[in-house]
Amino acid sequence: MRIIYLFIFSFLISCQSISEENKSKNNLVKPPSSKSHFSIQKKGNSYLIEVKKPFVGADFTERYLLYPKDSLLYKKDSIIHYIPYPVNSLAVTSTTHVGFLNAIDGLKYIKAANNLDWVYNPKFKQLHEEGKIASIGNRDLNHESIIQQEVDVVLSYAIDMSSYNEIKRLRALGQQVVLISEFMEQNPLDKAAWLEVFALLIGKQQAAEEYLLDLKKNYISLKESAQNKPGNTTLLMGFPWKGTWYMSGGMSFQATLFKDANCRYLWANTPNESGMPLNIEEVIHKALDADVWVNTNAMNSLDEIKEVDARFTAFSAFKNKAIYNFNKRINANGGNDYWESGVVHPDWILQDLIKIIHPDLLQDRDFIYYQKLN
User: How far is residue 115 CA from its own chain's centroid?
Assistant: First the structure.
């Protein structure tokens, strides 16, 4: 699971001069909302992508100007990164990048990737086996391998200044890098909207627009069906790691999904946007009688949960076998499609949660990411 956030704020300049009076709201392709971390503006034949606060604690904005190949370019001091588009080749550094590109038939643009074993997508696997996608390292990016691949753009992310400095070192070698910070978004549809950045890079804007329109329609329809049901089901999420239970805050992406599925998430009223470290005793006390338990991470059975801590058998959800995990689509290497395609399919995640929380709904549909633990 990737916990990294990158935001790309770019300034669009075409080879034509653009007067201040033409800088109207009509030029906003992806207008910034009060919470969204990126925006896209059209300036003549160019596009400005701006990413604000690309990771937690960052206080700056990255700006990318995508300009047509073979066109004249006038540079501005406010923009550092100039990228000719559409690009022909990409390197990706997160499985979510694979999910985004697959949604717009863009896997063929991937020429290099890291952590190949963690990718779930069968088409990606086939391309790698055919020698069309090279490895550029595992946890740490191999800068030499990246440069040797001669890709137009590396799609990457940073989680702190240390990892951002690694990006800067790669750029110092002459490599174009675009930061993808979808993980910073707390709204599932805002997270999926980063598809627009991928689409712009490879010239698939119309495909992305159509995809996102259909996604929003389906998501809202599912949400409305759940809101018509009683929201009394209490819900516990997560599983402790090294003695600490990291609970999603009430303002987090995960909590938004629980809210849209219309349940009583027991930590919904907390103001946190990220995970909250809690002691196990506190969680047991508060969630002992929770109706449903989801997102048990590496736990794949009730016996495994019991082996970790026998106290967990006292949870009502354990006794009633109402525990579900997002482990239905995992390959032999541990690649989990929930973290890969789920970024562009929040409707599928919401559908699974609704089936768990309101079992009388969506009875004609199968679970996609989740399954009950036995």
Answer: 17
The C-alpha angle 182, 253, 93, rounded to 5 degrees, equals 30
Q: Radius of gyration over alpha carbons of the chain, in Å?
A: 22
State which CATH number among 3.30.460.40, 3.40.50.1980, 3.90.870.30, 3.40.50.720 fits the domain covering 227-372.
3.40.50.1980
Q: State pTM to two decimals.
A: 0.90
Phi, psi of 125 (to 5 degrees): -60, -40
Triad 21, 198, 24: Cα angle to 5°: 10
> Is residue 218 within 8 Å of 192, Cβ to Cβ?
no
CB distance 273 to 186 below 8 Å: yes
Q: 304: part of which helix (H) or strand (E)?
A: helix 302-308
* Distance of alpha carbon 21 from alpha carbon 215, whole angstroms: 35
- The count of other CB atoms within 10 Å of the CB of residue 153 is 24
Q: Closest Cα partner for 231 from 291, 271, 274?
A: 291
316-354 residue pLDDT tens: 999 999 999 999 999 999 999 999 999 999 999 999 999
Residue 224 has pLDDT above 50, yes or no: yes
Domain boundaries for CATH 3.40.50.1980 within the chain: 20-203, 227-372
Q: Give the separation between CA 86 and CA 1, rounded to whole angstroms.
A: 30
Whether domain 20-203 has CATH 3.40.50.960: the reply is: no
User: Apex CA 298: angle with CA 159 and CA 242, to 5°?
Assistant: 65
- The whole-number pLDDT of residue 89 equals 98
Pairing relationship of beta strands 292-294 and 234-237 according to DSSP bridges: parallel
Give the long-range contacts of residues 254-261, CB within 8 A, separation 24 or more. Answer: 254/295, 256/186, 256/187, 256/188, 257/188, 257/346, 257/349, 257/350, 257/353, 258/353, 260/188, 260/219, 260/222, 260/223, 260/226, 260/350, 261/223, 261/226, 261/350, 261/353, 261/354, 261/356, 261/357, 261/358
